[in-house]
Structures are given as C-alpha cells and as structure tokens.
Automatic annotation (TrEMBL):
Organism name: Duganella callida
Entry GO terms, CC: ATP-binding cassette (ABC) transporter complex
Taxonomic classification: Bacteria, Pseudomonadati, Pseudomonadota, Betaproteobacteria, Burkholderiales
Entry superkingdom: Bacteria
Transmembrane annotation, as ranges: 25-45, 65-88, 100-123, 151-175, 195-220, 241-260
The keyword Membrane appears for this protein: yes
Protein name: ABC transporter permease
Transmembrane among keywords: yes
Annotated keywords: Membrane, Transmembrane, Transmembrane helix
Amino acid sequence: MNAQASPPSLLQRLHHGTVAWLHSWWRLLQFAVVMFTLALMPSTYSRDKRALLARHLVADTAPNLAWYGVLSALVSLVLIRIVVVTSLSYGLSRFALEMVVRVLVLELIPLTAAAFVALRTTLPAGLEYAQRRADGDVTLDELHREFFPRVAAGLFAVWMLAAVSCVLTLVLAYWSLYGFTPWALAGYTRVVGQVFNPAVSLILVLKIMFFSFAVGLIPMASSFYFGASYRSKVTHGLSDMVRLFAVMLLIEIASLMGNYY
C-alpha cells in the first residue's frame, strides 16, 4: 500500500507563498519599467497612436469626471456642514476652514478619486482584456495599442479627478463658510495658504502621483504576464483589487505620517 504523501509543512507553505508574493511584485515592477520606457519612445506618439491614446484618455476621464464631480460635491457639502456646525458648538469656528481643507482636500479626495477610477475603469478594463487576450508573447504593437493607452488613461483620470475635485471643494468651502461675498477672500486665501505649505503641497502631489501609478499599472500587469489562462475571472479581479487597495493604504499611511509626524 502506497504511503500517503504528507501535507506540506507550514514552513514550506510560507516559503512558497512568500516567493510567489515577491515574484508578483517583481513582475509588477518590470511592467512599470516597460510602460515608462514606452512613454519615452517617440514611436508611441505617432499619428495613429496619438488618436488611440486620446480616445482612451477621453473615454476613461470624461464619464468619471462628471459622476465623481457630482458625488464629491454632495459629500463635500455634507461634510463641510458637519465640520462647521461641530466647530461652532465647541467654540472652535476659527479652525473650521483648516479642518475642512485638511480632511477633505488633503486626505479624502485623493483617496476616493483613485478608488473611483480603479473601480469604474482600470480594474474592469484589466479584467476584460485579460479574459479576451490570447496567451503568448505580447508584441510591441500590442503594447503600444492595448496596454500603454489603458495605463496612461488610468493615470490621467486620477490626476484630473483629484485636481478638479480639490478646486471644487475649496470653492464649496468658501461658499459654505462665507456665502457669496468677495470680502472674506483675503482671509480665506491666507488660511488655505498656511495649510498648503511647501512640505504639505509636495506630499499631496506625490500622493496623487503614486495613487495614479497604482491605479494605472496594477490592473494591467496581470493581463500583460498571464493573459486568459492565468486564473479564473473572479480570482483574477479579487487578487488585483486586494493588491491595489493594499498599495493605496500604504501610500495613505505614508502621507499621514509625512503630514502629521
């Protein structure tokens, strides 16, 4: 009678899981290098490829900008009102504007903009392309026509949504606090300028930039390396989602440490 094979030990499973985890992140880094190399190649911006890139940028940004602009405006108005009323009740009204800017503009808007683009655009696009792509080596033309436009559109959508929503929130904050008068503009800009010192502004820009890299690169990396036969549709999407939001969480923690420690 054949002896049954002993199950792998915990140490072996941990070793295999660690190797697979490191290998997946190494492949993501390789994919990022490939995309940045394509971004520097003049052939990426030939006439026909420019038109394709422009279509992806518009298709992935315009619908998201409309929906996210409306949603962020409504949520911002509610949160601004909560902060203002709470500040007044505790006699801290002079800190209301600074709290609104720090909570909404510095923290919530970049994070939600990246999550919105990921859930609405890049994760579905990566999953769809992985399911219909044939296995095998990826040609340079396929990199130019399929992968790079999707990655660039994800990056651009995050930048655009975050920038427009930050400006919209600052306008709504002024209107909620002071109404339709121009006389408070000097004090308003002074407080906002004190919040956006050079260090905080740099951290905000870097956070949005790294969010956009994560949103644009991670969903397409699996499609690049594995194609349709890599894993099932559900597992593919869940794995990419977990990896993406884990990276976003790390970026957010790093930004909080940079702003407040």
